[in-house]
Design goal:
Radius of gyration: 24 Å
Strand content: 25-35%
Number of domains: 2
Shape: globular
Structural class: alpha+beta
Number of helices: 3
Length: 178
């Protein structure tokens, strides 16, 4: 093999390798666009990420059936335009809508009777980038009601707590969550 043939062969190999690298990058880019929504496990009675903050509380009723679990969500509509919530049974795959897709302007409350957690222990909070809402951009799920969730006898005390809890969670996270 002459020096010229060796150089041509080396250039052809380099071009082939570059084509393979380019194709691999294109495939990786296409698969990243098709990735499922980011799913995170919420573990405490408050959760904050850039663009969203939430807190849990319980409003005691006269009995267990009238006791309500409340999840207050405050989201930046520019980041998460809509939110929905479902209760799910991870064993039977049955689910119940707790909150249909709702615009995130202002605070959004998810209300559920506490006894429903016996049949639907998984709560999925689904956050959508647009209100058209194809696939959620973020799913925060909980298995049951967080142990640290406080109970209140009056709605006024619950509301005051939720406002304060979200503010404290944002401060601790070092971002506005909104």
């Amino acid at each position: 093999m002459t020096a010229r043939q060796a150089a041509w062969h080396s250039d052809a190999c380099a071009r082939a390798i570059l084509r393979l690298v380019f194709c691999a990058c294109a495939v990786a880019s296409a698969s990243a666009a098709a990735d499922p929504p980011r799913e995170v496990h919420g573990v405490a009675d408050a959760y904050v990420v850039p663009g969203m903050a939430l807190a849990w509380g319980i409003l005691r009723g006269t009995d267990e059936a009238s006791t309500r679990v409340v999840i207050r969500i405050v989201a930046d509509p520019q980041v998460y335009a809509a939110v929905s919530a479902i209760g799910k049974n991870p064993f039977s795959d049955r689910q119940r809508t707790l909150l249909p897709s709702t615009p995130t302007a202002g605070a959004v409350d998810v209300l559920a009777p506490r006894p429903q957690y016996a049949d639907f222990p998984r709560t999925e909070l689904r956050f959508y980038s647009s209100s058209a809402g194809a696939e959620p951009a973020l799913v925060v799920f909980y298995l049951g009601v967080p142990d640290t969730t406080p109970e209140f006898a009056t709605e006024a005390n619950l509301n005051a707590y939720l406002v304060d809890r979200i503010a404290r969670a944002r401060a601790a996270a070092g971002n506005s969550g909104k």
